[in-house]
Every structure is written in structure tokens, then in C-alpha cells.
Predict the structure.
Amino acid sequence: MSTWSQTTAVASTQIRLMWRERRLLWLAIVALLLASASVATSTARLSAHAQERHAVAEEEARLWDSQGVIDPHDAAHVGRAVPAPVRPLAAFDPGITDFVGTSVFIEGHAQNPARHRPIEEGAALSRFGGFSAAWTLQVVAPLLIILAGFSTASGELARARLRQELGAGASTMALVGGRLLALALAAALLSLFMIAVSLPAILLQGVSASQVAGLVAIGGAYTLYLFVFCAVTVAVSCLFASARTALVVLLGFWVVSILLVPRVAPAVAETLEPTPSAPAFRSAVTDEAKRGVDVHNPTDKGVKAFKAELLARYNVSDVKDLPIDFRGASYEFGEKLSTDLYNRHFDQLYDVYRRQELVQRAFAIFSPAISLQSWSRALAGTDFAAHLDYLRGVEDYRYRLIQTLNREIREHKLTSGERYHADIATITRDVVYTQGQQSAGDIVAAQVPNLAILLIWVVLAIGLAGVSALRLGHRS
């Protein structure tokens, strides 16, 4: 009999033995039911959010257009809100969507942070808040794998069965490989079910081809992740003759890699790369803005310098002789300065977040869950990079909108000295907000290090299983 035939025979036997273990079956069913309940609530919530944000966008557009004929600079201070998009794959992995704002209020001279975080809704958010199909596969599925496989080669009954299989001529590689194959098939089935229960919620939101590809890539990563636990479980079961010892070692590995390290890593990252508090950040921006140019104050030194530069450019001695409206030109100038100021401060903040991410990634050598979580959230569009893409898209729209209003004033100089008025809906009709969309290639490229770490875990786990196979013949 070939090694592969021996391996499949052993796997078949192990699958029958696991099926007889009804306790494990019931645990898996409970996990599936909880995940299904979570997905059901996520479906209702995502649909409600999609309808709500669509209604908000329409209402904001109506209010903006209803301003009528007014001073364009007054419209810049009226502002409007831009809601965040709903991510279809959040039904599978919500990521940080509950912890970041769902809309940004845009106005002249300032960049506002996202507001209205779903987590602030409290208990009404969801009875299954924090529980999702992704969380089940990340946390619960490895525990089920350990409970299903810790005694596959340890304990008196398992050892007796091993001796019989060895006596029948089976190789140790086939014995370990068969047990690993059986456990991996069970894990793959659980993973498939979890993704399947999420599909209706995802499809209801409408998905693009890139999102379908992202879901496939997510499924592949979870397969690798669960395979790591399958290989480690079988290896430890083979290395220890006592089933109790094997269970204690595996549970310790689960606690450290799944519960402890993913929670310690952010705390260490925050300590090494501290994030400024919201009041401190606002204070830093406000203080620098106060020291900058105040375009509303004609006696400001910066305004005077800009006026002198503008007069020299047009070779005139008085603003009355300028072919453009000085007020509009100064607003345009001031908006450029304030935007640069805010961009600089926000970029510094985002650099801190990126350095924190690198620190957390270093902890992936102790926990495959860290790499998997980053990959899963990135492909689902529920990580900070996706949120940052939304924020930058909103800021791009804000700047174009405000500068359109400023240029409208600049290009319509009134000789009477009165302020220019215009129909806001007409002059801003062509300034449209377009939702930013990260390309799949860019997302994957950014996540290559996490995938590489996950593959290293797979290689190490297979190596540990190989070592256990070599030692199995001597210990049985």
C-alpha cells in the first residue's frame, strides 16, 4: 500500500472517530448558530446603515442646493456632511467599522474628524456585538480544532491504536499525515460554513468582482491559519503520550497566541508610539492656526504680505484696480494655507498609526492571528487603511468644493463694493464627491508581509508535525 493510500485510510478512520465524538459536533453547531445569529443581525444593520446613509446623502444634497442665491463664502461656512460607504464584506468581518466615524462634516478653513461611531450607540448596537463569522474562525475554530485533535495520538487508546497501525506496516509519516488531513478537512468544512452563512448578507449589499476576489483571498488565508492549528495540534498529540499533557500544552498555545498576544501587541505599540489625545491634537492644530494667516482680518501681517504680492503681480497700487476680487483671492489663499496645515498634522498622526501597525506586526511571530486579522480586515475593506481612503476622498472633495466657492468670488468683482452673490446649486453642480476605492493590487501588496508571516507559520507547523512523525516510532 502506498504512503498516500495509508494516509487517506488513516484520515478516514480519524474522521469517523471525530464524528462519534458528539460533544465536538454540538460545540461546532453552537458556534455556527452564534455566527449565523451574528450575521443575521449584521445583515439587518448593514441594510439599515445603507438606507440611512443614502437618505443622509440625499438630504444633505437637498439642503445644500436649497441655499439659493447667497454669498459663496457664507455657503462655505454652512458646510455639509458626507456619510461613509457601507462595506459589503463587513457582514463577514466588521473589523474596525464600529469604532470609526460614519460621517464627516466638511466646511471652510477646517478638516473635521469622522463622527457618529456605531459603538457609541451602546447596547442597541447588537446583542452579538463583537461576534462575527471572522471572529468565530479566528478564536473559536482553533479551540474546536484543539478539542477535536488533542487525543488523536495521545492517551492509552490512541497509543494502542498507533501500535496496531505501526504493526500493520503503516509509516509514521502516513499516521501523522492522515490525522492531519482528517483534522484539516474538518477545519476546512467549518471555514466553508462560516463563509457560506455570510454570503446572503454580503450579496444583499451588492458586491463587485474585486470584492468577490477579496472574499476568496480571505477564505484562502483562513484555510492557512486553521491548518497551522491542525498541524500544531497533531504534532503535540504525537509528541506527548499523555492526552492531558497534550491538552494543557495546546490550550496554553491557544491562550497565548489567540487571547493574550493580540491584546498585548496594541498596548505595547501605543506605549512605543503614543497617539496624541484628541484634545492635544486639536490644541496643536488650533495653536498653529492662530499663529498663521487670518484672512478675515485685513490688518493681519500675512494678509498684508499677500496683498502686496498680488498688487505687484498685476502692477497696480490699489486693490480697487485689481481685475479680480481681493476678498475671494485672499479666501482662496487662506484655504490653501489652512489645508496644508491640517494635512501636515493629520499625516503626522497617520504616520504614528503606521508605526504602531509595524510594532504590532512584529508580535505576529508569537501569534498567527495578528497576521490573519490584518489580512482579513484589509481584504474586507474594514481596516484603518480603508477608512483613511474614505477620509482622504472626503478631504479632496471638501477642498475642491470650498475653492470653487472662493474662485467664484474672486472672478466676479463688483465695482459697487457690494458682496457678490450666486446660486450655490448652480456653481457647485460639477463638484461631485466620488467614493475612493482601493485597488485590489494595492491592498494585496500592502498585506504581503502578513501573508508571508502566515506562510512561515504554516512551514513551521508542518516542520513540527514532521519532527513528531520521526519521534513517533520511538515513543509508541
In short: The chain has a mean pLDDT of 86. The longest strand covers residues 80-83. Residues 22-65 form the longest helix (44 residues). The CA atoms of residues 52 and 405 lie 29 Å apart.
